[in-house]
């Protein structure tokens, strides 16, 4: 490539190009693109500026990286940006690894980054962002968890360095706005090694004050991002979130936001703003009190007028109701006064006595009439009773005859039956086995019941012999069986 130097210096030898040797724009751009492609892969450190992406349609990112004296266009293709571990934004210091590229259509050179990592402060910001996301997932930044700060705090503790201008600003602000606020100062380091531990201890001491303060101010002045890293400490952030007293933070200036700001109960942009937020100005309090006094007067006046109007209405209704009731009671009293029992009580008793005497007379007459009627009926019953008893003698004689006849018939019937019974008894007695036993016979019982044959028992069997007056128990010694002829001879 004559006339082209990869170092960027002027060519050592120059020659005049005639019209026939002149290059077209496309050829010149092609030569430049080839020279850029020949460069090795580079790692470039720079600050991101003008970041745009990912593009809604293509997904690519377009921006510039710059240093103090130069800037270059940069492109990250969609595939490379999808592998990112953090989001790019303006102001971040980033190391990009890639190659230069020339867009031939416009001749514009860009650096195409294949990968990128944070560098310097950018790495710290990435760590802070990761910690913030962790605490957010745990719920330490939820608004529902944050406690309400009293509008007017009468007792305030401030945790900060006692040697800086911040504590003087806080004291001056509270003294100017509201000298009634009691300020308690708790000293602690706010920067450098061991600062988070001292701040945690300061918060604990401030929360342990008796009586407890209404809130705690955790403040410090402005500084670089590294100076404010103390307030991005995880242990300190958790101590702020777990502090039993509400915490108000005022760390750095307006653009500065630390993790302690995110987990605190109220975040203010500066220490002065934090002091102002917990101590309303006296003039503001006076205005508020006067406005509330006016509203209270108007409200009470309206309430009194409404109550008076309601009372007048109730008084009128009560008067009318009472008058109507008195009228009803008066009418009822007049009606009662004209009743005979009240107008002439003795007359009522006279009427009752007269009624009673008349009832007694009627009762006496009724008793006399009933007695006369019963006497007449009794006199008529005597002859009927005599007639009735005269018929009883004939009936008694007939009954005696029937009795005699029944006794005779009964004896006649029983005589025949008694003779038959006696004959049957004699026959039964003659056939009874006991009668046979009485004549000297016996019954022998063996193992199988009554012994009717000599073959029914064997030597050694136990037998029972039934006699007329008892039983004899014996054992068979021997058995002799007779033939039929022998039995007949016997």
Helix content: 40-55%
The main β sheet shows up as: 5 strands, mixed, barrel
What is the CATH C-level name of the largest domain?
Answer: Alpha Beta
Strand order of the largest sheet: 1-2-3-5-4
Tell me the overall shape: elongated
Structurally, how many domains make up the residues? 5
- Give the SSE string: HEEEHEEHEHEHEHEHEHHHHHHEEEEH
Q: Termini separation (Å)?
A: 174 Å
- The CATH architecture of the largest domain would be 3-Layer(aba) Sandwich
The assigned structural class equals: alpha/beta
Strand content: 15-25%
> CATH superfamily of the largest domain, called what?
Cobalamin-binding domain
Low-confidence stretches: 1-17
**Average residue pLDDT:** 84
CATH structural fold name of the largest domain: Rossmann fold
Write the layout of secondary structure elements.
Elements: H1 25-37, E1 42-52, E2 61-66, E3 71-76, H2 78-81, E4 93-103, E5 108-118, H3 121-137, E6 155-160, H4 165-177, E7 182-187, H5 195-207, E8 215-220, H6 234-242, E9 247-251, H7 259-263, E10 266-268, H8 271-278, H9 282-337, H10 340-343, H11 345-390, H12 392-431, H13 433-438, E11 443-446, E12 449-450, E13 462-466, E14 471-475, H14 484-489
Helix pairs in contact: 4-8, 5-6
Describe this structure in words.
- There is one protein chain.
- With 490 residues, this protein is of the alpha/beta class.
- Helix content is 49%, strand content 18%.
- It has 5 domains: 22-119, Nucleic acid-binding proteins (OB fold (Dihydrolipoamide Acetyltransferase, E2P), Beta Barrel); 153-280, Cobalamin-binding domain (Rossmann fold, 3-Layer(aba) Sandwich), CATH 3.40.50; 282-314; 327-360, no CATH class; 438-489, no CATH class.
- It has 14 helices and 14 strands.
- It is elongated.
- The termini are far apart.
- Mean pLDDT is 84; it is low at 1-17.
